[in-house]
Write a structure and sequence with these properties.
By secondary structure, this protein is of the alpha/beta class. It has 15 helices and 14 strands.
Length: about 400
């Protein structure tokens, strides 16, 4: 059997549908973010990155960089293996204490990524709690879906951000079932924010555990960056808060936080924790420095919000359609995979603007988009340049403008 032919047949189908992913070869330049060097042959040498999840530019922050350098000099590069075999690094425990404090929880548990933390935690809870039923928001992230699937627990999907539908579905379940309500705070593709207070009220009414993914909110919302749950004063009522170190904190890794018993339960039974090489101590040290900084500094968040508001206002003035939400994520709707790829390519080649097209299966067919994430290090001139480029391309590509 010619396996390459089988592989290529499916790859060609992706290309014909306009959903084949092409990765830009970029080199981040320390101290120059959001500028990056492009290694693509047919584009400019320098581009401005408009779709990074390093939302606050903390991956470039001098305090964070120095913490990583100091830890490398003190401990070397790798962690040496799993925490079970090679030992837990002191830097891991310091970071976990910092994360627990961030969310007002007794404990936290560190993973190698937000994907792994969701997959491992949900699969462990669903598989080991008696008669578990996981109630999942319809638009939950792939990592949550995979964790639920792997748990083999009963799954109930409730309508996106609809507490009334959740209430109805919880009411139908047996009283003795271990019910887990899984949802996100900020949904990364549409940028909408969940009605967290109402969801928590419904879950408490039915004695359900609440599991909230705050990966697109930690560092950005709340007075100390504890996420939407902190901003709304709800963190103490949520059973498990999951987050990432790879977005607003500018590093790498994921985590869960909750009671000491909950974190120890996941530590003791989650294969995604037990058998995975731990994060390097230097990464943990950098993340700790980033969290500590954003617990007390408001300037990065304030400037980011100012730039988000400015870009929204200028897109509105030009009639360029973007989803109306209250978050920092600005999805500009194209609704065609071929045009979405074409516009992204032209922005890169002719304007030095890098934004990755978001196509199926990340979003449903017919909702293709460009997802912009303005940050505190994008200048007013950067925003004007982006809006001018989009305005020109909208005219050239004859894409419908937003209704005034």
């Amino acid at each position: 059997m010619d396996f390459d032919n089988l592989f290529n047949a499916q790859l060609n189908a992706l290309k014909e549908d306009g959903n084949y992913r092409i990765f830009a070869e970029l080199e981040r330049q320390c101290g120059q973010f959001p500028r990056a060097r492009s290694h693509d042959a047919d584009g400019p040498d320098q581009v401005t990155v408009w779709c990074s999840n390093d939302y606050l530019g903390m991956g470039q922050h001098p305090t964070v960089r120095q913490a990583m350098k100091d830890a490398i000099d003190a401990c070397g590069t790798g962690s040496g293996g799993t925490r079970n075999i090679s030992g837990t690094a002191h830097h891991h425990l310091v970071l976990e204490r910092e994360l627990a404090d961030l969310h007002g929880k007794e404990a936290a548990l560190l993973f190698t990524s937000g994907y792994v933390s969701n997959w491992a935690a949900l699969s462990t809870l669903g598989s080991r709690l008696p008669d578990a039923v996981i109630l999942s928001d319809a638009l939950n992230h792939a990592s949550m879906i995979e964790g639920i699937r792997h748990s083999r627990a009963q799954k109930v999907i409730w309508r996106h951000n609809d507490p009334e539908d959740l209430d109805r579905k919880l009411a139908r379940l047996p009283a003795n079932a271990a019910k887990i309500v899984a949802f996100e705070s900020v949904y990364s593709m549409d940028g909408d924010i969940s009605p967290m207070a109402e969801i928590v009220e419904v879950a408490e009414k039915h004695g359900a555990m609440t599991y909230v993914d705050e990966v697109h909110a930690v560092g950005l919302y709340g007075p100390r960056g504890g996420g939407v749950s902190e901003e709304l004063g709800l963190a103490h009522r949520i059973t498990l808060i999951e987050g990432t170190l790879g977005k607003a904190y500018g590093c790498m890794g994921g985590y869960v936080s909750g009671s000491a018993a909950l974190c120890d339960f996941i530590r003791s039974f989650a294969s995604g924790f037990i058998f995975t090489t731990a994060l390097p101590p230097a990464v943990a040290a950098a993340a700790t420095a980033s969290i500590r900084h954003l617990k007390v500094s408001q300037s990065e968040r304030q400037q980011q919000r100012a730039q988000v508001a400015q870009l929204r206002a200028k897109l509105d003035a030009r009639g360029i359609p973007h989803l109306d939400n209250s978050s920092h994520i600005i999805p500009v709707m194209i609704k065609d995979p071929v045009k979405c790829r074409m516009i992204a390519d032209i922005l890169m080649r002719d304007w030095g603007i890098y934004v990755q097209p978001i196509n199926y299966p990340t979003v449903p067919k017919g909702t293709e988009r460009l997802r912009f994430t303005p940050g505190p290090l994008h200048s007013d001139a950067d925003i004007d340049h982006l809006v001018a480029a989009l305005t020109t391309l909208w005219k050239q590509c004859a894409i419908a403008h937003a209704v005034a």
